[in-house]
Amino acid sequence: MDHSGHGMNMDLPPFTLGRGLQFSADPFFLIGCVLAIGLYAYAVLRLRRRGDSWPIGRIVSFVVGVLSIALVMCTKLNDYGMVMFSVHMVQHMVISMLSPILLLLGAPVTLTLRALPVAGRDRTGPRELLLMLLHSRYMKIITHPVFTIPLFIASLYALYFTPLFDFLMGSKTGHIAMMVHFLAVGLVFFWPIMGVDPGPHRPGYVMRMLELFAGMPFHAFFGIALMMATTPMVETYKNPPASLGIDALSDQNWAGGIAWAFSEIPSVLVLIALVFQWYRSEQRTAKRSDRAADRDGDQELQAYNAYLASLQARGQ
């Protein structure tokens, strides 16, 4: 296996965290991250100029989400990930399971819908096109658990345990496409479960938790399979450069351990977000009921009391 790293010198010194965090930008992801933060900031400013607010928590979440992508794709972690399975697995886990959650908590679609102007009568502008996409049959399919859960699982097993991974790692374009795929899969998996943005598939909170736990165990099983293997399972990482001073099987065991341990992190984050959203939803429902009771003199309660009184009268 050629470890040239698509034209880069891959005779890297032994890995340390300090070396891994040195700046080494992938142009595609660097431009993408800068654009994402720039467009998000522009949309927030548009809202502020017209007197509308936007929660600071959403801003922080989105920015940290983008920075998490930059952390694994615009540093030497990306270089080491080309020749070390363990470092690559850190990239995969962050970009597919941590970054999507943070980005979704930033509610970028809701922000876009609020920032874009409404088109004139009988006209279709960017906002209307986005709404059409959100309510399209295509979005209903790709956000349904029958689609998202198998896709989430296949992104592990069908990729790493077939020659597809080696093919994609053979070119810079293939590597970028794979990382974009990881991010996209994470977004479509977590969006219906805990996304703040509107979407075509939004089940109740109990169903969302079931969807979450339906996918997470497969990450743990994948990690265990890597840790229990007695030979290197991925061709790309079978012969690491001598300059790294690592053993391929030991590095694979580390990769498996990272995949196994990381499966717990998004579960906790999403559960916290779900419980908080559930609590907020119950609070809003209670406030709506109180306002309705104030308007109609609590007719619903009076009707229920009258019903109980009629039952009691019948029993006498």
Give a brief description.
The chain is mostly helical and 316 residues long. Helix content is 72%, strand content 0%.
Secondary structure elements and pairings:
Elements: H1 17-20, H2 27-49, H3 56-73, H4 76-80, H5 85-105, H6 108-115, H7 126-134, H8 137-142, H9 145-160, H10 164-169, H11 172-194, H12 205-228, H13 248-262, H14 264-296, H15 299-315
Helix pairs in contact: 2-3, 2-6, 3-5, 5-11, 5-13, 9-11, 9-12, 11-12, 12-13, 12-14
Secondary-structure element sequence? HHHHHHHHHHHHHHH
Counting DSSP H or I runs of 4 or more residues, the number of helices is 15
Beta-strand percentage range: under 5%
* Bulk shape: globular
Helix content: over 70%
Catalogue the unreliable spans: 1-9
N-to-C span: 90 Å
Gyration radius, in Å: 25 Å
The biggest beta sheet, please?
A: none
Give the class from helix and strand content and strand pairing.
mainly alpha
Mean pLDDT: 84
Number of strands: 0
